[in-house]
Amino acid sequence: MRRPVTTALVAALLLSPPGVTTRLSSSTVDVALSADGRYAALVRTEQNGQSNVYIQDNHSGTQTLISKGHNGPANGDSRLPSLSADGRYVAFETTASNLGTTDTDPLPDVVVCDREGGPSCVYAGRPKSPSRPTASHSPALSADGSVLLWVHAPVLTFSLQAANGTQLARTRLDKDQAGRLQPPTRFELVDTAPPGSTATGVGRPAISADGRHGAVITGLREQPETLVALSLTGGQPTRLHSGGQLGDPVLSGDGAKVAFTAGRRVLVHDRGTGTSRDVTGEGTEPTLSTDGRYLAFVTAANVVTRDLIQDERRTKAGLPPLPPALTSPSIRQTCPDPPCPANGPSRAPRLAPDGSAVAFISTATDLVEGTEPGGTFLRRFTPTLTPDPAQVTAHGADPTVAVLRHNGFGPLPITGVRVTGDFEVFPAETCSARILHAGEECLVSVRFHTRPSTDRTGRLEVQTAGGLVVVPLSDGPGGPGGLLARPSEVDFGPALVTTPGQERTVDLHNTGTVPVRTHRVALVDGGPHFSPGDYALTTTCDQLPAGGTCPLRIRHTPLGMGPRPAVLEIEHTGRGGRELVLLTGAGTAGVVTASPAVGRPGSVITLTGHGFPPGAPVTITLAGGPERTTAVPGPDGTFRAPLLIFPSGRPGLRTLSAISTAGSPPVRAERPLLVQPGSLTPPDLVTRR
């Protein structure tokens, strides 16, 4: 068996101080991380044996007690924290009666606390009464802090023993304009039984980042354990997987992927394809990043992490998956194939939603210097960016491309690109605002300024989450077999969304004396501000003889409204090896007008729209009322439609909205409409000739 590779450093950070025990359990996780791993919600057992929830700021190292009573210490245990993405809100279960709860029974309750301005907590469970005692536990808080799932457990009034089975409940959290929590008023039970089935109980739930999806292991009368997907905005539960020994469901941010355990295996279910696959061979306790790319889990006595997207790419290429990244390595052990496992078991991993860090519990004493067993540890991945070449030599005003490759394991955010000295970025770069992963690269095309200079040097500076990467720039003579793409910038102009627009040509010129072959001509991922899917190559070029020219034809079809740039990359055997072309185009913005411009309750106005996707329905609404209609634009993107203003319609200045979801983002147009009761004729008009 090959050992997992290591590609990160264990941070010298002990979340749970020496001598304070942390619960070690395969069925619960007593640590949670904010989106970037900065904040950790964790459980500490105090000297008096009581468990409390703390938040640690991993930048400053400070800890804040969250499970704090109104007028003193909490009078009960608190555990199982669930944290919002920004670390502001934390939900947990507690038996304390002075943490936003009012009952005095020994049953657990679910509370949500806001850290802003000092912890303030609200009871998030179903309203109780002395004649109807209930327990609430196992909370799952959405990343945006808006929705809470929890297990509702009715109990017998006199014995306080469980009555019937457990149920899943949902609370929508109310907040004021400053985000301060208000006592919740919206509770509902969630149906966890697929059509035709009857639920007998539920396990700990999982929830998507936006609170729209959930997953839970449900006990059914005909099947003891079934993984069920939940639509929390309406719709019926969906059976994903049945069988014995199911547990630990976790969701990607959009709810499209569900990881769970089946016996001693971790499976990932893709709701798009409806298939489940074994991604670990042997493993338990999965935890998934928001984008569904990174999966951390426990195998043997170690915590490891996989890059599922990299695994899929290698499988498609006919290659075996790489071994996972060992996430709990020893700093002192020696072994034939390092890194080496630590000297104690590690378990209960919790992956930061952005995939950058993993918190886990371990009894090992050799994870960091000077630690005692029984701590909760944080491992942060530290990939780097490697420039190729390490120093770039430009050739006058001709652009030269620098390639920057991800090296290591885990996400690598790039926060900025800057060129100094006698050079500038031209025509484009694909690094800014990118997050690179294993096997990925970004490109920066630079050229020498045409202004006179005696120095003719500069620097390419790329700022990453791990530090600054500097590539020296200089100017030098050209070599044989150069390839130029002209023009370097191509503007396609505006077009209706989803409608084919202009076709343009980029000519490739071999300026050298030897043939040049193209390895790849493609539209590349330039990050969140680029739209490569809006463009299509209708011709390509394979080889150019010395002095030869080859045209590339490109068509633009905007798939969304507003500016839609993209980058065309030509990889070739000539000098420099790469050429970039910046493509710009736009999807037209929608416009809607109303006639008359002032409407009265009970009247019909005529709406006219321009710039909408042809043939795609446009939904028109009038804010503040039930008025709604639908129109379908013609081939020129225009429509006309009547809209009835209801007789009981609210008077005043209201917003008229027209939205087509055919684009991404949707094509939207708004304008104000005055709804005015009474006559629409001028007050001084008496007769008409």
From TrEMBL:
Region Disordered: start-end pairs: 62-82, 187-207, 657-689
Origin superkingdom: Bacteria
GO biological process annotation, one example: carbohydrate metabolic process
Family per record: Belongs to the TolB family.
Designated name of the protein: Tol biopolymer transport system component
Natural source organism: Crossiella cryophila
